[in-house]
């Protein structure tokens, strides 16, 4: 009888772990910026991206560079706008151009490239995603509802970043983000159904 009672907590813990494993790790979160009154909706965590193997092989001494991105919805008293938050975290010695410059970044999806246009945002009390490194670059780009929908169904999710030497480094998402992005689109009522 004692053996069975000892198994009950272990079985309960195992069931709890299995239940948590089925939950998506990246879910939309909504927060109110008290300073501006703007409601901001983002993913729980930004999308982490690594450079292509080709770039990593060419610059092994630079350390690993990362890119991060995530959709943002701003709700200003019922007036909605959307943006793509991008943060570039260069490895040691990696030289990326100014991501605020025209044509510095492109998003590539299954159906082709998407030009990103820089957008100025209102200064909020806190950002929707934390800056990963203080020496990185962060910017917001215009994101249309149609592009957000395309991102949610695209197997390919790549951010092309121009380096100072003119080379383009392709960063790809570490995991398939379709489910998380589809959940984001659905939670915002943007499915177009």
Describe how the helices and strands are arranged:
Elements: H1 2-21, E1 28-33, E2 38-43, E3 47-51, H2 53-58, E4 66-76, E5 79-89, E6 105-109, E7 112-115, E8 137-142, H3 145-153, E9 157-162, E10 168-173, H4 178-187
Antiparallel strand pairs: 1-2, 2-4, 3-4, 3-10, 4-5, 5-8, 6-7, 6-9, 9-10
Attribute tags:
globular; 10 strands; 34% strand; single chain; ten-stranded antiparallel sheet; Immunoglobulin-like; alpha+beta; 23% helix; 193 residues; disordered N terminus
Entry summary:
The protein is α+β, with helices and mostly antiparallel strands and 193 residues long. The chain has helices at residues 2-21, 53-58, 145-153, 178-187, and strands at 28-33, 38-43, 47-51, 66-76, 79-89, 105-109, 112-115, 137-142, 157-162, 168-173.
Structural notes for this entry:
With 193 residues, the protein is an alpha+beta fold. The chain has one domain (28-187): Sandwich (Immunoglobulin-like), CATH 2.60.40. It is 23% helix and 34% strand. The protein contains four helices and ten strands; from the N terminus they run H-E-E-E-H-E-E-E-E-E-H-E-E-H. Helix 3 runs antiparallel to helix 4 (178-187).
């Amino acid at each position: 009888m004692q053996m069975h009672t000892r198994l009950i907590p272990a079985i309960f813990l195992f069931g709890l772990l299995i239940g948590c494993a089925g939950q998506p790790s990246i879910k939309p979160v909504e927060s109110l910026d008290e300073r501006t009154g703007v409601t901001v909706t983002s993913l729980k965590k930004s999308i982490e991206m690594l450079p292509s193997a080709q770039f990593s092989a060419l610059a092994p001494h630079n350390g690993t560079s990362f890119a991060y991105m995530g959709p943002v919805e701003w709700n200003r008293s019922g007036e909605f706008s959307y943006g793509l938050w991008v943060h570039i975290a260069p490895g040691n010695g990696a030289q990326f151009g100014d991501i605020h410059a025209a044509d510095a970044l492109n998003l590539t999806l299954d159906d082709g490239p998407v030009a990103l246009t820089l957008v100025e945002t209102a200064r909020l009390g806190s950002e929707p995603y934390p800056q990963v490194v203080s020496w990185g670059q962060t910017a917001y780009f215009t994101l249309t509802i149609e592009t957000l929908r395309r991102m949610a169904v695209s197997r390919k999710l790549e951010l092309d970043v121009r380096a100072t030497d003119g080379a383009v480094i392709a960063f790809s998402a570490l995991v398939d983000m379709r489910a998380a992005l589809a959940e984001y689109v659905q939670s915002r009522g943007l499915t177009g159904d």
